[in-house]
Amino acid sequence: MIGQRLRVARAGSGLSLRALEGRIDKLVTAQAIGKYERNEAMPGSKVLIALAEGLNTSVEYLLGRNAAAFVGVEFRKNSLKRKRDRAQVEARTLELVDRYLAIEELLDLPSAVWDQPDEAPYRVRELADAERAAGMVRSCWRLGIDPIANMVETMEERGVKVLSMDLPSSISGLTAHATRSDGASLPVIVVNGASRGERQRFTLAHELGHLVMDVVKEVGEEKAANRFAGSFLMPAESLRPEIGKRRQSFGWGELFELKGLYRVSVQALTYRGHDLGIFNDRLFRDLFREFVRRGWRKPPYEEPYGFPGEESRRFERLCYRALAEDVISEAKAAELLGISVRDLDNRMSMPLQDCEEAGLCA
């Protein structure tokens, strides 16, 4: 039955039942579409094709089985208040996760399972516990103390699905839990595609903190997640040898060099230095006063020497792998990638240089 996928595709397109009726030239009524979504009726082939075209998806997707369903969505900030906006973000997330799970299951990959760190969720009764939790995750995942080169790849290797999409500027990211067809829970983190790379990395670490910590109310979940993120991205054992144990002044050149090393914002660095007692209160206030003066504390948070977002190409690679190994057909690969068969053929046959110039290759 197509009910859930049709409802998800419509919500993801931001269309009402009446608007979808108009988009398919009133081939059927809004009431009929509502019946399809409730699985009270099944559209004929002509209507099914029209619905797929109207929703910019494929018939194969609408007819496919549902690999995941949402248990819940937790927004980092309570800023996405419009029900329509929330439904659209949730629907788009579910659609992308559904495609991701489908290709992983076809290839029987172990990374489809969430590699939850040992002993998580960690009980956090004070901020120092969040610091320890970050160290335990690094230890469990054998990350050492060096700066993490690619946060997206690190998360996805442990079974966290990372998606990038357009969100309001007030939303940095969200955490969701999807339920697979076998009943297993899968964490999903969505980051704002418009955010700069350093902000996306902090958001990923922050949302990871939400996934692995159990924070008492007195501490505050957001404070604990921020402390976790700072510790995860800039371990004390790594940062102190770089900048020393106590600093009363700090130059811009040194600050931006450290930004490049840890791939975080200078604001995150300043918070981290203050949390560790390396920056005293006066230095902390002076730096943030300058950040405010330069406009770096407001969207779009345009600090100098920013980084592009970290885009994972893993899903695309898996689709090409499955196609090359004859696990899926060209039509199925095109459906999963959300492109036409013609575009897929062009990507598969295009010389590497032309592919890169067209922006189609990683």
Mean pLDDT over all positions: 87
- How many discrete domains? 3
User: Tell me about the biggest sheet?
Assistant: 4 strands, mixed
Mass-distribution shape: elongated
Strand order of the largest sheet: 1-4-5-3
N to C succession of SSEs: HHHHHEHEHHEEEHEHHHHHHHHH
Rounded to an integer in angstroms, the radius of gyration calculated over CA atoms is: 23 Å
Number of helices: 18
Structural class: alpha/beta
Spans of at least 5 consecutive residues with low confidence = none
By DSSP, the count of extended strands is: 6
Q: How much helical structure, as a percent, in the residues?
A: 40-55%
Calculate the terminal CA-CA distance, rounded to whole Å: 36 Å
Q: Strand content of the residues, in percent?
A: 5-15%
